[in-house]
């Protein structure tokens, strides 16, 4: 039997294909923590507690990728850690792309879109995913999100809706 990979206290046999935006232990730990919190396991569960400790350490790093910040913001929102959630969302807001009355996030260094007649560009799946995680982080709040947060979330939802393909789905597998 193959030896499991241990990521911040979480044993894992799979998940390499789940990493849409970044390939590192922090994003994988965030994916698994989100899944555990959505079950819902309580934040007091030892595996969740250890994973959140690992993610808190990672969240303090200044060089986190936008995709990683989006996952971390949602994980902390699910865990009820308002302070970390807000700090990450504030950081993400500074990196947001505002265009045509909508808001989204894209990977650093991405080539700008070329506007062509009769062609609507769709973002790569990783960008749809990270923007969706930011939206989830905005909407997952206790108490309920404030009106200004809901207004900002509607700008994010507008962009996500514009990324639907003709069949109503998205390029993302997540």
Explain this structure to me?
The structure is a single chain. With 174 residues, the protein is mainly α. 49% of the residues lie in helices and 7% in strands. It has helices at 25-38, 46-59, 66-79, 82-94, 125-139, 147-162; strands at 5-7, 10-12, 97-99, 102-104. Helix 1 (25-38) packs across helix 2, helix 3 (66-79) runs antiparallel to helix 4 (82-94) and helix 3 packs parallel to helix 5. The longest helix has 16 residues, at 147-162. The radius of gyration is 17 Å and the shape is globular. The two termini are 29 Å apart. Residues 1-6 and 11-19 have low confidence and may be disordered. Residues 15-174 form the Alpha-macroglobulin-like TED domain. InterPro entries: A2M/Complement_sys (IPR050473), Alpha-macroglobulin_TED (IPR011626), Terpenoid_cyclase/PrenylTrfase (IPR008930).
Class from secondary-structure proportions = mainly alpha
Helix content: 40-55%
- Strand-and-helix sequence, N→C? EEHHHHEEHH
Beginning-to-end CA distance, first to last residue: 29 Å
Strand content: 5-15%
Biggest sheet: strand arrangement: 1-2
How would you characterize the largest beta sheet? 2 strands, antiparallel
Number of strands: 4
**Tally of individual helices:** 6
Indicate the overall shape: globular
Rg calc? 17 Å
On the 0 to 100 scale, the average pLDDT is 84
Low-confidence stretches: 1-6, 11-19
GO cellular component, one term: extracellular space
Protein name: PZP protein
Domain Alpha-macroglobulin-like TED: 15-174
InterPro entries: A2M/Complement_sys, Alpha-macroglobulin_TED, Terpenoid_cyclase/PrenylTrfase
């Amino acid at each position: 039997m193959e030896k499991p990979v241990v990521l911040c206290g979480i044993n894992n046999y799979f998940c390499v294909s789940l990493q849409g935006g970044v390939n590192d232990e922090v994003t994988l730990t965030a994916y698994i923590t989100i899944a555990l919190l959505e079950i819902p396991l309580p934040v007091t569960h030892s595996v969740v507690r250890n994973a959140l400790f690992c993610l808190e350490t990672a969240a303090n790093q200044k060089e986190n990728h936008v995709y990683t910040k989006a996952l971390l913001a949602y994980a902390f929102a699910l865990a009820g850690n308002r302070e970390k959630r807000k700090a990450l969302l504030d950081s993400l807001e500074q990196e947001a792309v505002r265009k045509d009355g909508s808001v989204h996030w894209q990977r650093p260094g991405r080539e700008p879109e070329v506007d062509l007649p009769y062609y609507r560009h769709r973002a790569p799946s990783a960008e749809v995913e990270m923007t969706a995680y930011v939206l989830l982080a905005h909407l997952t709040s206790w108490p309920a999100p404030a009106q200004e947060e809901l207004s900002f979330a509607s700008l994010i939802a507008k962009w996500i809706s514009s990324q639907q393909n003709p069949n109503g789905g998205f390029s993302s597998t997540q």
